Amino acid sequence: MRVPLSWLGEFVSLPSDATPEQVHADLVRVGFEEESIRRFDVTGPVVVGEVLSREPEEHSNGKTVNWCQVRVALPGERAADGGEDVRGIVCGAHNFDAGDKVVVTLPGAVLPGGFEIAARKTYGHVSDGMIASARELSLGEDHDGIIVLSRLGFDPDSPELEVGSDAKALLGLDQTAVEINVTPDRGYAFSIRGVAREYAHSTGAEFSDPAFSREPAAASGFPVTISDEAPIRGRVGATGFVTRVVRGIDQSRPTPAWMVARLQLAGIRSLSLEVDISNYVMLELGNPLHAYDLAKLQGGITVRRAVEGETLVTLDGQERKLHPEDLLITDDSGPIGLAGVMGGESTKADESTTDVLIEAATFDPVSIARTARRHKLPSEASKRFERGVDPLVARAAAQRMVDLLVELAGGTADELGSDIVPDWQAPVVRLHTSRVNGLLGTDYSDEEIRGAIEMIGCTISLGTAGDPDLLFVTPPSWRSDLTRPADLIEEVARIVGYDRIPSLLPVAPAGRGLTREQRLRRRAADVATAAGLDEVQSYPFVSRAQLDAFGAGAEAAAVEPAAAEGAAAEPAAAADGAKRSPKIDAVRLANPLDGEAPFLRRSLLPGLVTAAQRNVSRGMTDLALVEFGSVFEPPTNSGQATATALGTDSVPPLAERPSDEVLAELDASIPKQPRRAAGLLLGDAVVKQPGETVRAYDWADALDAARTIAGALSAELVVSQGSHRAFHPGRTAELAIRVADDTDGDEGGLEVVGVAGELLPELVAEYHLPGRVAAFELDLGRIIELAPREPETSPLSTYPAATQDLTLVIGEEVPAGDLLAVVVAGAGDLLEDARVVDDYRGTGIEEGQKAVTFALRFRAPDRTLKAEEASEAKLAGVAAAELAFGAKLRE
């Protein structure tokens, strides 16, 4: 909210030497965050000038300019810039003549945008200054003609228009505004009235309420009906509707300079006198108004909800399809406005309008907020209505606009109108004064507490003798946000002063801290970033295309069908087959931020790919990203192949607390949100540099990263060939961990917890990513559940190790990992470490066979092993491999 200080000073006693900085500090004291200070960016000599002569000259470029003699100081006196009192000035505008009083910017003046005024030679003359237009002074958009002061309502013979006088003060260009940040619960502060009251609370200055400084005139006879028989979500859309009629207004009259200056400083540009007045009153009192052309109205006004299929052309020229929840202003012709948001094109006032109907209404905040968001149509009016407007100020606002139209537009007030004023009753809040200090940790006295509550406009009645510290508090009409004891306690802290609240750190109770899951999640993130991955966070919203392309994430390798036959020979065909896989079930948002991405993610990979795409487009081509976050699983009984929508019908009425059964039902409807970890790697793992060979990221790096994260959780991944709709069919690893049997503690089966490998080349190309892209995704929550509570450790042996190599010949179809697992199991406890070091196929090996070489390390904890013992253990592993897969020892 931008608050011009001259305007603020009309309703509260500002010190004569008040500075914007001091006003900011005073408002910060009562809880408003300071934003900035606004000024007209005009400095230097800007004076009132009188045109003595105007001589049109046509030039070879086809343009006609005027060579003018302009008096800028009284005869015999020096001008504001120290020069002569009469100046020759070239002007391209033609809307003035000799004798007119104009605004002249003399050499040395600086206009908005850093435009410096100096004597310049142009069109054959030295122009010693400039006659200014409204746009050049930031007073409006008019640039075709210069400012003629008599046409702004100034008396050309008045002392304020004396030649050479300061035009900045005359036009309000010397005014200043402070900008403050208003929180959503304090809608009353979106008005000069509200800010002035808060300034009075902060400084003790005298406040005069502009809403009740005059008695509104009575009006009747104009038919208005509020028809909302079926309130939406238990809330009635409109509770008050005040109308007034003004006849014979002159639309050609300009808006006074002082009003234009205040509107500009407040952030609203000047459009026309009638529109400017309505905006001025809205800023002053906080109640938005709208003016209809009375001649265009057909019959009376009805406030109702929209009917399915209705449309409305709003003032911005857009045709809008209306929703049954939209609250409308209608006449006999149909909809003529979106209530509290924007008026309609059919009844707007224009240059030919002489009679207007003024509307000042009270609308339901929730209804207005939903309509504004539904139609993506935020406005100054909706911003105020959705935060709550004082229900008792509508009559005063309408009367204020009537008075200004009569004074400034030459209109005549009519007795025709309507007065539907809500029967407003504030809720009574029960507050125990002892609870104030108990919650804030302060030592406020009862007098201070009651004084603060009364200062903000509340009325207080004391409780019974048996409960002396009980207060019954009735908030004022402009404070609809005060509904609970906590709200009043916050007001006490704000008014008495936050500096009275002691700064004490609470002592955490013993025995509390992070849960096991929280500790392990943090450990996984720390280890991942220490390993060189950059942690990112992405939005959880995805499109249908992303949902179907990336599938359901970590568990997909276990549940999705394998690629079609011929995938290895025809990867493109396999990719097409993956894209034709059944659609993924997902939670669909009823009111998404982006209509193109209405689903909640089932995988973290779409967000990582999008982040990589954005970084690559900005020149970052070597990336190693990791994300830890939640995914959202739809209800398993949805029975839908496309999406499960969280519809608006599932939201209970907002006017009352839902029952325990409804709350339980809502809790049950919340989708499961398992935790995942995912990573994406592209570009070079080792960049080109002296002594180093360039190496690009590949599937092995993704697998290593997944193992690193699992290792941080004391879990060991078992790797096998897998498939996933988003991954290359020949470069996809299925990641699993062993699950212990609950009955006897023996090793059970494997449970898939993730996938790693390289993304489909077609998918990589679709996102315009360079080269190959490696990725992984893990079900972090499940790994934490299955990880051992206490990691197993073994003491370091002080005895030497015995190392041996082992080469087995086996069929090509047998995975090396499976063969390694069998060898390890057969070799027994003496085998300390085993790894695959070679996979050979070629000369000396039969077709369809491969030779897999292992490096084995044996060690005993209590003695030095003999070579025979190591060989015996190795041969036991060979025997197990021969029994399981028919493997043969290669000599």
How many domain regions? 6
The portion of residues forming beta strands comes to 25-35%
Principal-axis shape equals elongated
Tally of extended strands?
Answer: 44
What is the CATH superfamily label of the largest domain?
Answer: Bira Bifunctional Protein, Domain 2
CATH-defined topology of the largest domain: BirA Bifunctional Protein, domain 2
State the strand order across the main sheet. 28-32-34-40-39-38-37
Question: Overview of this structure, please?
Answer:
The chain has 891 residues and is α+β, with helices and mostly antiparallel strands. It has 6 domains: 2-40 and 175-208, Phenylalanyl-tRNA Synthetase, Chain B, domain 1 (2-Layer Sandwich); 46-171, Nucleic acid-binding proteins (OB fold (Dihydrolipoamide Acetyltransferase, E2P)), CATH 2.40.50; 220-420, 3-Layer(bba) Sandwich (Phenylalanyl-tRNA Synthetase, Chain B, domain 3); 429-500, Phenylalanyl-tRNA Synthetase, Chain B, domain 1 (2-Layer Sandwich), CATH 3.30.56.10; 518-786, Bira Bifunctional Protein, Domain 2 (BirA Bifunctional Protein, domain 2, 2-Layer Sandwich); 802-889, Alpha-Beta Plaits. The chain has 23 helices and 44 strands. The strands form 13 sheets. It has a 7-stranded mixed beta sheet, with helices on both faces. Strands 5-4-3-6-11 form a 5-stranded antiparallel beta sheet, with no helix packed on it. Helix 5 packs across helix 6, helix 10 (433-440) crosses helix 12 and helix 11 crosses helix 12. The longest helix is centred in the C-terminal third of the chain and has 19 residues, at 867-885. The chain is elongated and about 120 Å long.
